[in-house]
Amino acid sequence: MQLLRSARSAGTRLVSTSDVQVTALVAVLIPAAALLASRTLEVDGPYLSSRATLLLVSLGVPLAAAAVAGSRALEHRLGVENAVVLAVPSARARTGGALLAVAVLGFAWGAAAHLIVVGAESALSIGAPVTVLLLQSLRAGLVVAVLVVAARSLGDLLRNTAAVWTLVLAWSAVGERLVGSIPGLGPIAGPFLPVRNADYFVTGSAYGADYPWSAPWALLVPLAWAAALCAAALTVSALVPVLSSRKENH
């Protein structure tokens, strides 16, 4: 019961935040603008390749993740967490419920955004098979669910809205490219970068990179990153009250 109450509370706070609402809309409108500019949908087996799909994954999804991370950091700054503790005393229920809410909302947004953008592109161009469109929309939803959970954990760690927005957007736009271009390190680290693997999982295209796994397994990489960030956030959240009490005693 506490888990569901926590999930409902976290979901309500997230969807009622104006920054999240605006960013979620913009993250869909940008790929839609690419659709109007150039309809280049192609079907390659179980995947749909298009400029709109690429923009949705490479720009729309990081925008959504940054909004979630920023919203979480703002909650810490405003002291919202104190009220949540009173409503749901169990730390495990608070954390599990919040992550569940973020994952479900992220999945719903990712799948719906892909259906809206790429579905419209399909109708306007060659008319891709519905099953292919639905499967890729499910993949997009899974990617968003994993990345927004990672972003929320990052918000728990940094607790600064500007910092998390900058880090998430800079990492997705420039950071992974820089890491991938470092001589010696790039070819080794490249296959283990989260956004690259998220793109590979959704689009099925490696864009010249040499991945040791096929596209359906690429989701495990961002999932591992999300798990590591969650573990770090939980550790920090557990240590902060202890350190604060020790400081007060001294």
Can you give a write-up of this model?
The chain has a domain at 2-173. α3 (51-78) crosses α7 (161-181). The chain is mainly alpha-helical and 250 residues long. It has helices spanning 2-15, 18-37, 51-78, 80-87, 91-124, 130-158, 161-181, 186-189, 194-203, 220-249, and strands spanning 42-44, 47-49. The protein is globular and about 55 Å long. The protein starts with a helix and ends with a helix. It has a two-stranded antiparallel sheet with strand order 1-2. The mean pLDDT is 75.
In total, how many beta strands?
2
Percent in helix: over 70%
Helical region count?
10
Largest sheet: 2 strands, antiparallel
Fraction in beta strands = under 5%
Strand order of the largest sheet: 1-2
Q: What would you call the shape? A: globular
**Unreliable runs:** none
Mean pLDDT: 75
What is the CA-based Rg, rounded? 19 Å
Q: Give the helices and strands as they follow along the chain.
A: HHEEHHHHHHHH
Spatial gap, N to C terminus = 38 Å
* Structural category: mainly alpha
Q: Which secondary structure elements does this structure contain, and how are they paired or packed?
A:
Layout lengths: L1 H14 L2 H20 L4 E3 L2 E3 L1 H28 L1 H8 L3 H34 L5 H29 L2 H21 L4 H4 L4 H10 L16 H30 L1
Antiparallel strand pairs: 1-2
Helix pairs in contact: 1-5, 2-3, 2-5, 3-5, 3-6, 3-7, 3-9, 5-6, 6-7, 6-9, 6-10, 9-10
Question: What's the gist of this structure?
Answer:
The chain has a two-stranded antiparallel sheet. The protein has helices at residues 2-15, 18-37, 51-78, 80-87, 91-124, 130-158, 161-181, 186-189, 194-203, 220-249; strands spanning 42-44, 47-49. It has 250 residues and is mostly helical.
